[in-house]
């Protein structure tokens, strides 16, 4: 899969129960052209989450792994059928090469222009800028002055209230974690309210 079909928004699932993650997947149904779903590898039983969610939703929703910090994390995620790999840190060339062999999208983290260029030279598909809120929206525009148009993902401190300004300044993709939903809606597994929060993200972009 190429990035042309990669959803604009990725919902980050970190340390939620499986039932909570399942409710979020249900909320994404019908909006899957807009939203992918990331299970962080530091969530207990993350590979099982990825595997089981893919069994039920994988034909509709793009489900991948986040907080992929090393080759072991990567292999575990790919074995669980993760369709993409995200990290807040750089990927080694071996990690990116392995993902390409498996037809899995790579989204390593970077922050400085040097790190971004290194990941581009390694042929990463998308570059995650983290924490985006610290860098600020204009950083995305400024990075692309010397480096050209780059597929950048803004992650860290993003919510429906500020997502639009990051997109306007050159972020092509957005990752949203705790800022996506009200905590009580997750705890209550309230699918209609979770879906409305997703719609709010789209409408405010």
Automatic annotation (TrEMBL):
Q: Would you say which domain of life the source belongs to? A: Bacteria
Pfam families listed in its UniProt record: Aldolase
Kindly list the GO molecular function terms attached to this UniProt entry.
Answer: lyase activity
Instruction: Give the stretches traversing the membrane.
Output: none
Q: Which UniProt keywords apply?
A: Carbohydrate metabolism, Lyase
Involved pathway(s): Carbohydrate acid metabolism
InterPro entries membership = Aldlse_KDPG_KHG, Aldolase_TIM
Q: What does the similarity note say?
A: Belongs to the KHG/KDPG aldolase family.
**What quaternary structure, including any partners, is listed in this protein's UniProt entry?**
Homotrimer.
| PANTHER family xrefs | 2-DEHYDRO-3-DEOXY-6-PHOSPHOGALACTONATE ALDOLASE-RELATED, 2-KETO-3-DEOXY-6-PHOSPHOGLUCONATE ALDOLASE
Q: Know the name of this protein?
A: 2-dehydro-3-deoxyphosphogluconate aldolase
- The species is Lactobacillus kimbladii
